[in-house]
Amino acid sequence: MAHYAILDANNIVINVIVGKNEDEDGENGEKGLDWEVVYGGKRTSYNTSGGVHYLNDNITPSPDQSKSFRKNYAGIGYTYDPVRDAFIPPKPYNSWTLNETTCLWDPPVPYPTDGNLYDWDESQLKWK
Question: Alpha-carbon distance 18 to 41, whole Å?
Answer without folding.
Answer: 11
